[in-house]
Amino acid sequence: MKLYGKVQGTGQPLVMLHGLFGTHENLGGLSRQLAENYQVHALDLRNHGRSPHVEEMNYPAMAADVREYIEEHRLGSAIVVGHSMGGKVAMQLTLESPELVTSLVVLDIAPAAYGDRHKEIFKGLYSLDLEELSSRAAADQPLTEYVTELPVRQFLLKNLVRGENGFKWRMNLFAIYQGYQNIVSAVAEKCWDGKTLFIRGDQSDYITKQHRNDIVMRFPGAKVVTIEGTGHWLHAEKPAAVLKVINRFLGG
Hints:
The chain is an alpha/beta fold. It has 11 helices and 9 strands. The protein folds into 2 domains: about 5-115 and about 185-250, Rossmann fold, CATH 3.40.50; about 120-180, no CATH class.
Protein backbone atom coordinates (compact mmCIF):
# COMPACT_ATOMS: atom_id res chain seq x y z
CA MET A 1 0.00 0.00 0.00
CA LYS A 2 1.67 3.20 -1.21
CA LEU A 3 -0.26 6.09 0.30
CA TYR A 4 -0.15 9.46 -1.42
CA GLY A 5 1.45 12.14 0.71
CA LYS A 6 2.07 15.85 0.28
CA VAL A 7 5.23 16.99 2.07
CA GLN A 8 5.77 20.55 3.26
CA GLY A 9 8.30 22.21 5.55
CA THR A 10 11.37 20.95 7.39
CA GLY A 11 12.08 19.72 10.87
CA GLN A 12 10.53 17.04 13.05
CA PRO A 13 8.15 14.81 11.01
CA LEU A 14 4.43 15.37 11.53
CA VAL A 15 1.86 13.11 9.85
CA MET A 16 -1.63 14.49 9.11
CA LEU A 17 -4.62 12.16 8.60
CA HIS A 18 -7.99 13.33 7.24
CA GLY A 19 -11.52 12.12 7.97
CA LEU A 20 -14.14 10.03 6.19
CA PHE A 21 -14.91 11.09 2.57
CA GLY A 22 -11.99 13.53 2.73
CA THR A 23 -8.47 13.97 1.41
CA HIS A 24 -5.27 15.59 2.65
CA GLU A 25 -6.62 18.87 1.25
CA ASN A 26 -9.26 19.11 4.01
CA LEU A 27 -6.48 19.75 6.51
CA GLY A 28 -4.55 21.91 4.08
CA GLY A 29 -4.75 25.14 6.05
CA LEU A 30 -3.58 23.47 9.25
CA SER A 31 -0.84 21.62 7.36
CA ARG A 32 0.53 24.83 5.85
CA GLN A 33 0.66 26.54 9.24
CA LEU A 34 2.30 23.58 10.98
CA ALA A 35 4.82 23.32 8.11
CA GLU A 36 6.40 26.53 9.40
CA ASN A 37 7.89 24.48 12.26
CA TYR A 38 7.62 20.83 11.17
CA GLN A 39 8.04 18.59 8.16
CA VAL A 40 4.38 17.86 7.47
CA HIS A 41 3.33 14.71 5.62
CA ALA A 42 -0.37 15.12 4.75
CA LEU A 43 -1.63 11.72 3.61
CA ASP A 44 -4.59 10.41 1.64
CA LEU A 45 -5.83 7.30 3.44
CA ARG A 46 -6.72 4.16 1.48
CA ASN A 47 -9.81 4.46 -0.74
CA HIS A 48 -9.60 8.26 -0.51
CA GLY A 49 -7.99 10.93 -2.66
CA ARG A 50 -5.01 9.80 -4.70
CA SER A 51 -4.23 6.70 -2.65
CA PRO A 52 -4.96 3.16 -3.92
CA HIS A 53 -8.44 1.64 -3.98
CA VAL A 54 -8.71 -1.74 -2.25
CA GLU A 55 -11.49 -3.90 -0.78
CA GLU A 56 -10.33 -3.97 2.84
CA MET A 57 -11.36 -1.02 5.00
CA ASN A 58 -10.64 -1.25 8.74
CA TYR A 59 -8.41 0.41 11.32
CA PRO A 60 -5.71 -2.26 11.59
CA ALA A 61 -5.24 -2.12 7.81
CA MET A 62 -5.29 1.69 7.66
CA ALA A 63 -2.84 1.95 10.55
CA ALA A 64 -0.56 -0.53 8.77
CA ASP A 65 -0.66 1.72 5.68
CA VAL A 66 0.54 4.70 7.71
CA ARG A 67 3.20 2.58 9.41
CA GLU A 68 4.46 1.52 5.98
CA TYR A 69 4.60 5.17 4.87
CA ILE A 70 6.58 6.20 7.96
CA GLU A 71 9.02 3.33 7.51
CA GLU A 72 9.39 3.76 3.75
CA HIS A 73 10.13 7.48 4.11
CA ARG A 74 12.50 6.76 7.01
CA LEU A 75 10.80 9.21 9.32
CA GLY A 76 11.86 7.24 12.37
CA SER A 77 9.10 8.47 14.66
CA ALA A 78 6.61 11.26 14.10
CA ILE A 79 3.98 13.48 15.62
CA VAL A 80 0.64 12.15 14.37
CA VAL A 81 -2.41 14.39 13.96
CA GLY A 82 -5.77 12.98 12.84
CA HIS A 83 -9.30 14.31 12.41
CA SER A 84 -12.40 12.11 12.83
CA MET A 85 -11.73 8.79 11.03
CA GLY A 86 -8.12 9.91 10.64
CA GLY A 87 -8.01 10.41 14.38
CA LYS A 88 -9.00 6.80 14.89
CA VAL A 89 -6.33 5.68 12.44
CA ALA A 90 -3.83 7.78 14.40
CA MET A 91 -4.96 6.16 17.66
CA GLN A 92 -4.79 2.65 16.20
CA LEU A 93 -1.28 3.32 14.87
CA THR A 94 -0.15 4.66 18.25
CA LEU A 95 -1.57 1.71 20.18
CA GLU A 96 -0.13 -0.89 17.80
CA SER A 97 3.18 0.78 16.93
CA PRO A 98 4.03 3.13 19.81
CA GLU A 99 7.68 3.32 18.78
CA LEU A 100 6.64 5.29 15.68
CA VAL A 101 4.74 8.02 17.54
CA THR A 102 6.28 10.81 19.62
CA SER A 103 3.05 12.77 20.23
CA LEU A 104 -0.59 12.14 19.32
CA VAL A 105 -3.16 14.83 18.50
CA VAL A 106 -6.77 13.77 17.88
CA LEU A 107 -9.35 16.19 16.48
CA ASP A 108 -12.94 15.59 17.62
CA ILE A 109 -13.22 11.82 17.79
CA ALA A 110 -13.07 9.32 20.64
CA PRO A 111 -11.62 5.78 20.47
CA ALA A 112 -15.15 4.43 20.99
CA ALA A 113 -17.70 2.83 18.68
CA TYR A 114 -20.37 5.06 17.14
CA GLY A 115 -23.76 4.44 15.59
CA ASP A 116 -24.72 4.98 11.95
CA ARG A 117 -24.22 8.70 11.33
CA HIS A 118 -23.90 8.68 7.54
CA LYS A 119 -26.95 6.75 6.32
CA GLU A 120 -28.45 9.70 4.44
CA ILE A 121 -25.09 10.66 2.99
CA PHE A 122 -24.64 7.21 1.48
CA LYS A 123 -28.20 7.31 0.11
CA GLY A 124 -27.53 10.69 -1.45
CA LEU A 125 -24.21 9.71 -3.01
CA TYR A 126 -25.62 6.51 -4.44
CA SER A 127 -28.65 8.37 -5.82
CA LEU A 128 -26.51 10.42 -8.21
CA ASP A 129 -26.37 9.26 -11.83
CA LEU A 130 -22.76 10.14 -12.51
CA GLU A 131 -22.86 9.48 -16.25
CA GLU A 132 -25.71 11.95 -16.67
CA LEU A 133 -24.14 14.79 -14.72
CA SER A 134 -23.12 17.81 -16.78
CA SER A 135 -21.11 19.42 -14.01
CA ARG A 136 -20.21 19.03 -10.36
CA ALA A 137 -22.63 21.86 -9.56
CA ALA A 138 -25.46 19.89 -11.17
CA ALA A 139 -25.04 17.22 -8.49
CA ASP A 140 -25.75 19.63 -5.67
CA GLN A 141 -29.51 19.99 -6.17
CA PRO A 142 -30.42 16.27 -6.10
CA LEU A 143 -28.11 15.78 -3.13
CA THR A 144 -30.04 18.36 -1.05
CA GLU A 145 -32.82 15.80 -0.54
CA TYR A 146 -30.42 13.78 1.60
CA VAL A 147 -27.84 16.31 2.84
CA THR A 148 -29.30 19.68 3.85
CA GLU A 149 -26.08 21.44 4.90
CA LEU A 150 -24.41 23.22 1.97
CA PRO A 151 -20.85 22.99 3.39
CA VAL A 152 -21.23 19.21 3.81
CA ARG A 153 -22.49 18.84 0.23
CA GLN A 154 -19.60 20.91 -1.08
CA PHE A 155 -17.18 18.78 0.92
CA LEU A 156 -18.65 15.54 -0.45
CA LEU A 157 -18.81 16.74 -4.05
CA LYS A 158 -15.08 17.51 -4.07
CA ASN A 159 -14.79 13.76 -4.63
CA LEU A 160 -16.39 14.05 -8.07
CA VAL A 161 -13.90 14.08 -10.95
CA ARG A 162 -14.34 13.77 -14.71
CA GLY A 163 -13.75 10.36 -16.24
CA GLU A 164 -13.93 9.04 -19.78
CA ASN A 165 -17.68 8.50 -19.55
CA GLY A 166 -18.78 11.41 -17.42
CA PHE A 167 -18.05 11.92 -13.76
CA LYS A 168 -16.70 9.35 -11.33
CA TRP A 169 -15.88 9.20 -7.64
CA ARG A 170 -12.26 9.85 -6.72
CA MET A 171 -12.93 7.88 -3.51
CA ASN A 172 -13.75 4.18 -3.49
CA LEU A 173 -17.38 4.66 -2.44
CA PHE A 174 -18.24 0.96 -2.60
CA ALA A 175 -15.37 -0.13 -0.34
CA ILE A 176 -16.13 2.67 2.12
CA TYR A 177 -19.80 1.66 2.24
CA GLN A 178 -18.97 -2.03 2.62
CA GLY A 179 -16.49 -1.26 5.39
CA TYR A 180 -18.60 1.34 7.17
CA GLN A 181 -19.27 -0.78 10.26
CA ASN A 182 -15.51 -1.11 10.68
CA ILE A 183 -15.12 2.65 10.34
CA VAL A 184 -17.57 3.38 13.17
CA SER A 185 -16.08 0.66 15.39
CA ALA A 186 -13.77 1.24 18.35
CA VAL A 187 -9.99 1.17 18.08
CA ALA A 188 -7.75 -1.41 19.74
CA GLU A 189 -8.16 -1.88 23.50
CA LYS A 190 -4.54 -1.28 24.36
CA CYS A 191 -2.87 1.40 26.45
CA TRP A 192 -0.36 4.17 25.62
CA ASP A 193 0.74 6.66 28.25
CA GLY A 194 2.61 8.93 25.87
CA LYS A 195 1.95 12.58 25.10
CA THR A 196 -1.66 12.79 23.86
CA LEU A 197 -4.05 15.65 23.12
CA PHE A 198 -7.75 15.45 22.24
CA ILE A 199 -9.33 18.63 20.85
CA ARG A 200 -13.13 18.74 20.74
CA GLY A 201 -15.71 21.22 19.49
CA ASP A 202 -18.15 22.28 22.21
CA GLN A 203 -21.07 21.95 19.77
CA SER A 204 -20.02 18.47 18.61
CA ASP A 205 -21.23 15.19 20.10
CA TYR A 206 -18.23 13.16 18.96
CA ILE A 207 -16.46 13.58 22.31
CA THR A 208 -18.80 13.73 25.31
CA LYS A 209 -18.57 12.93 29.02
CA GLN A 210 -19.67 9.39 28.15
CA HIS A 211 -16.46 8.93 26.15
CA ARG A 212 -14.15 9.80 29.04
CA ASN A 213 -13.62 6.19 30.10
CA ASP A 214 -12.87 5.13 26.51
CA ILE A 215 -10.18 7.80 26.32
CA VAL A 216 -8.63 7.28 29.76
CA MET A 217 -8.54 3.49 29.37
CA ARG A 218 -6.34 3.76 26.28
CA PHE A 219 -4.60 7.09 26.85
CA PRO A 220 -4.36 7.64 30.62
CA GLY A 221 -2.23 10.77 30.27
CA ALA A 222 -4.40 12.43 27.65
CA LYS A 223 -5.28 16.10 27.83
CA VAL A 224 -8.68 17.20 26.46
CA VAL A 225 -9.18 20.77 25.24
CA THR A 226 -12.49 22.25 24.05
CA ILE A 227 -12.72 24.91 21.34
CA GLU A 228 -15.76 27.06 22.03
CA GLY A 229 -18.17 27.87 19.21
CA THR A 230 -17.16 24.96 17.01
CA GLY A 231 -18.58 21.64 15.89
CA HIS A 232 -17.01 18.59 14.30
CA TRP A 233 -15.15 20.72 11.71
CA LEU A 234 -13.39 22.77 14.37
CA HIS A 235 -10.18 23.09 12.34
CA ALA A 236 -12.13 24.81 9.55
CA GLU A 237 -14.38 26.86 11.82
CA LYS A 238 -11.67 28.27 14.11
CA PRO A 239 -8.31 27.32 12.56
CA ALA A 240 -6.28 29.88 14.53
CA ALA A 241 -7.61 28.58 17.86
CA VAL A 242 -6.92 24.94 16.92
CA LEU A 243 -3.41 25.79 15.72
CA LYS A 244 -2.68 27.68 18.93
CA VAL A 245 -3.73 24.70 21.07
CA ILE A 246 -1.65 22.27 19.00
CA ASN A 247 1.46 24.45 19.03
CA ARG A 248 1.16 25.00 22.78
CA PHE A 249 0.83 21.25 23.36
CA LEU A 250 3.73 20.27 21.09
CA GLY A 251 5.96 23.01 22.42
CA GLY A 252 5.23 22.23 26.06
